[in-house]
Amino acid sequence: MPRSAGRSSRSAGSALFGYWLAGQMAxxxxxxxxxxxxxxxxxxxxxxxxxxxxIVAGWDNRTCGFRLCGEGNGFRVENRIPxxxxxxxxxxxxxxxxxxxxxxxxxxxxxxxxxNAYEDASLPQVPKTLREAIQELARSRVAREALGPEVVEHYxxxxxxxxxxxxxxxxxxxxTRNFERL
Length: 182
Fold this sequence. Notes:
CATH topology: Creatine Kinase, Chain A, domain 2
CATH class: Alpha Beta
Number of helices: 6
Distance between the termini: 49 Å
Number of domains: 1
Order of helices and strands: EHEEEHEHHHH
Strand content: 5-15%
CATH superfamily: Glutamine synthetase/guanido kinase, catalytic domain
Strand order of the largest sheet: 2-3-4
Structural class: mainly alpha
Helix content: 40-55%
Shape: globular
């Protein structure tokens, strides 16, 4: 890899912190609905937009889904996946559940990424659509264990209604596009 991209030798904190971070990264796709609950939520995940597109952690790196920053008692990780339209209680619940999953399973700490994550096609991606997030949550055993099956089914129902409502609408773009061609 070029010098500006790849893995860092810089430490990511304690073993416990490594498990927490690994859990966050492992569960992003399955918990994506709690971070981005609407059809429109997924349009913000665009390269170069300061919204994350890749599931990777980097030091003070805003191209990564997880940004490590601070030092000493101020050392922290920022989960940059949730958007402003996320319910903060659900986003925090998903974040905590993911971290606890990593700790409980003692997941291996991820390598710290250096470089522009937007440009690295080898990195895993944040779901690109609500439909993709619904599929990920529907198959999530961890979500059911952490939040309860009834809670997951409730939010799957809500998500499917959101997707169905969107699928039944003819948008202004579609109308304009079709008029251009007719």
